[in-house]
Amino acid sequence: MSSVADQLTSVLQKTARLIELCSALQEENELLKLENESVKVALDTSKTKNMDLEEKLRVLKLAKSIEGTSEKTLDIKQKINDFVREIDKCVVLLKK
User: Fold this and answer.
1) What is the mean pLDDT of residues 5-14?
2) 55 backbone dihedrals φ, ψ, rounded to 5°
3) Which of 3, 19, 29, 75 could be joined to 71 by an S-S link, Cβ 3.0–4.6 Å?
4) pLDDT at residue 1 above 80?
5) How far from chain centre, in Å, is Cα 63?
6) pLDDT on residue 63
7) DSSP state of 70
């Protein structure tokens, strides 16, 4: 009988230990989920910042290319206005 009682005690101890381990793993899982969410938020923030910086870089490159030409500012504005008029004409044609 003693061996059955010992085996039962051993099973109960092992079951209690498994329950403790399960609880610890569940807590760790919750912490990892929270950490994962915060990393996702940081990643989204970084992506947004990266897109903003890329847009600023594109604008700076455009400004540099315009600055590097020998044309005057008024000539550049005139070209832009001509482009806008041409685009407007194309839009009118597309609507017909």
Assistant:
1) 94
2) -65, -40
3) 75
4) no
5) 28
6) 77
7) S
Q: Which of 48, 67, 69, 71 is nearest to 59 (CA)?
A: 67
Residue for token pair 């059955």: 4
Strand, coil or helix: 69 = coil
Residue 6 tokens, joined: 């010992």
Give CA–CA dist 48/82, Å, rounded.
34
Distance CA 22, CA 33 (A): 16
CB 76 within 8 A of CB 66: yes
pTM for this prediction: 0.53
69 Cβ contact partners less than 8 Å away, ≥ 6 residues apart: 76
Per-residue pLDDT tens digits for 46-78: 999 999 999 999 888 887 776 655 656 777 778
